[in-house]
Write a structure and sequence with these properties.
The chain has about 650 residues and is mainly β. It contains five helices and 31 strands. The protein has a 22-stranded antiparallel β-barrel. It is globular, with a radius of gyration of 24 Å. Mean pLDDT is about 90; it is low at about 1-40.
Length: about 650
């Protein structure tokens, strides 16, 4: 497989970006909003680069899911929608709503087989989640908290498929999911409420208020979600809030700040073959940031401070016939960061970006006695990471752009890591885009892996990989038809595995990853009323990885006319490893249907059905997914 990929790279020598998502809400090159109905609008992204850039000139593949698609899904979480819309990306689930944490949790994210666990029970930290470019993960465990990523905060989501460690450092070795928060561009006040109820006594509700008065803008939102779950003792309850304030100091300078807080209670009944009693969790997560930004056109940048934190209470439960545990696991973690970057156009066709990041993260954990509250300390540790990076992009001729980047990253305990990347993009006749890219990704070991629980090993080294990508894309028929194909090869080493050392399990750098595959997308707007789209990914894994299907195919048909909007889609997943010991794979087909009817300017009725074929399937072994489910509700706008 490796030889075949390398021969293909030599043969083609070029690479292109994937086709743009049909409903992406992109900003124009001058920062103006572009109507997504304009078929030939150029897609502008911020995640593959620190400044707004035409994605055609970037060496990496960036998929975008816009606000229009997010609203039409009527989902409480962003993750199910991303699984449908982004080829190569997969997120595990275990029920109607909620992912949970610790044992039995879902919400595990992988892309191209990176981020999924190479071994049962290992943390999944190879995919990085960002909110407005700021890393979001638990300071102790090092992994994202999937229940924190709600649809109410997102203007759009940009997904880099492939390493993004030059700009974002550790954990971005598989790729990044960047949640770009909502904005209010037009003058006035807008309030929207979305309420829904469905199977298993499931309720979801959110209210958002947006204001713009001259140079001032604000967004305030709140949500409440709950379900009884499709299995006994699988309830989930969540409530949260979000606020964002912004002020334009001048045409070139602005300041913004935002904060969110979510709390959820989750229960885990355990695997069907190994049930648990009273495995309950009470989790609180928070995020805040303040940024000062400048944009003069030829140069733009930002200085920002951000923080995220968490308070975890977990009852690990007990098996039938056993005695309840006499303690509860507790932890408090935090991550503080300072980020600065400035991007400048030094001369025609050039863009130079330099930046500095500083992260301070960690926390403490303990077991707390139920009887007297006495604490038994587990870990109390803080670590630091400081980095500088530079990215240089130059248009050699009108149709060819080269890009090179380098990051120097220093971890207070592990040491120094050099991270390079390079690529080229070509704009060819007939709307063809071609690109080639080679990039390094890496991940530092987490505090959990180095200091917590029996397998801990403080001498761990970073995980590393190299990714090589070849792709081609084209727009036809005035932008109404677009397609893209990506070919990639990933070679990684030093993966952290749990192995027996001296008669006891220990985390050691002994694992490898060697993945290759193909991703494809097609979007065709037949008319202003009808559109079809499909994406497919094939993943070849030399070594099995959890939560990384061999085949993933999604196809949908969308209809929108007058007051009606209807979308139906089918997802096919095959060769999904739901467990590794013993190795078990799953194959399933899901049919979903979403529909809405606008009763008036302020009232819309909506409904959705999921798994309408009533498939019996599991994503995590021992956690059967619900069969056919339905939700219905109202969306009100004022």
């Amino acid at each position: 497989m490796k030889q075949w990929i390398l021969q293909s790279v030599v043969w083609f020598g070029l690479v292109g970006r994937s086709a743009a998502q049909s409903d992406s809400i992109a900003e124009g090159l001058a920062g103006r909003l572009v109507d997504p109905a304009v078929y030939d609008a150029r897609e502008v992204v911020v995640t593959g680069t620190r400044n707004r850039a035409d994605s055609r000139h970037l060496p990496m593949t960036v998929s975008v899911v816009g606000r229009e698609r997010i609203e039409r899904s009527n989902e409480q979480s962003l993750l199910p929608l991303l699984t449908e819309q982004v080829p190569g990306l997969f997120v595990t689930g275990r029920g109607m709503m909620g992912y949970g944490v610790s044992g039995g949790a879902a919400g595990q994210m992988s892309i191209r087989g990176v981020g999924g666990a190479p071994q049962a029970g290992m943390p999944t930290t190879g995919m990085l989640v960002l909110i407005d470019g700021h890393p979001q993960y638990a300071g102790l465990m090092g992994h994202p908290i999937s229940d924190a990523y709600q649809s109410m905060i997102a203007e759009r989501v940009e997904v880099v498929r492939g390493p993004a460690s030059v700009l974002y450092g550790s954990n971005a070795m598989g790729g990044v999911v960047n949640i770009v928060t909502r904005k209010m561009r037009e003058e006035g006040v807008k309030t929207q409420a979305n309420l829904g109820y469905g199977s298993f006594n499931t309720f979801q509700g959110k209210v958002t208020n947006r204001v713009r008065r001259g140079r001032f803008s604000s967004i305030v939102g709140g949500s409440y979600n709950r379900t009884d779950g499709h299995r006994a003792d699988m309830g989930f309850e969540q409530y949260g809030g979000y606020v964002k304030l912004g002020y334009e100091l001048s045409e070139a300078w602005s300041v913004r700040g935002d904060a969110s807080l979510t709390h959820f209670n989750a229960s885990n009944p355990g695997e069907t073959f190994d049930p648990l009693i009273d495995n309950d969790q009470r989790i609180t997560r928070g995020m805040a940031s303040v940024a000062v930004e400048n944009d003069y056109g030829h140069t733009s940048g930002s200085l920002s401070f951000f923080a995220n934190w968490g308070n975890h209470w977990i009852d690990d439960g007990y098996h039938p016939g056993e005695e309840p545990l006499d303690y509860r696991f507790r932890s408090r973690d935090r991550m503080l960061g300072l980020s600065w970057y400035q991007s400048a156009r030094l001369f025609a066709g050039n863009r130079l970006t330099v930046g500095v990041d500083y992260f301070h993260f960690g926390g403490r954990s303990w077991n707390q006695s139920v009887a007297d509250g006495e604490r038994t300390a587990l870990v109390d540790k803080m670590q630091d990471e400081v980095a500088g990076y530079v990215d240089f992009r130059q248009r050699i001729v009108r149709w060819m752009t080269v890009d090179a980047g380098l990051r120097l990253d220093r971890h207070s305990h592990v040491g120094t890591e050099w991270v390079p990347q390079a690529g080229m993009s070509f704009l060819l006749p007939r709307g063809v885009d071609l690109k080639v890219r080679a990039a390094k990704g890496f991940r530092y070991p987490t505090i959990r892996e180095m200091y917590m629980f029996r397998p801990a090993n403080p001498d761990l080294k970073p995980e590393r990989l190299w990714s090589y990508e070849l792709s081609v894309a084209q727009r036809l028929l005035g932008g109404r038809l677009s397609w893209g194909v990506n070919l990639f090869y990933i070679d990684g080493e030093n993966l952290i595995m749990r192995m027996p050392v001296g008669g006891r399990p220990m985390n050691v750098n002994t694992g490898r990853v060697e993945n290759a595959g193909v991703e494809a997308q097609v979007v065709y707007r037949l008319s202003p009323t009808w559109s079809i789209e499909s994406n497919y990914s094939y993943l070849h894994m030399e070594r099995p990885v959890l939560a990384s299907p061999e085949h993933k195919l999604y196809g949908s048909v969308d209809f929108a006319k007058g007051r009606w909007a209807v979308s139906t889609g089918v997802q096919y997943v095959a060769g999904l490893y739901k467990s590794l010991d013993p190795a078990k794979t799953e194959t399933f087909v899901l049919w979903n249907l979403r529909a809405s009817f606008r009763v008036s300017e302020w009232l819309t009725l909506w409904a959705r059905g999921e798994n309408l074929l009533a498939q019996r399937y599991e994503i995590n072994a021992g956690f059967p997914m619900p069969r056919a489910t339905a939700m219905a509700g109202v969306r009100m706008s004022f």
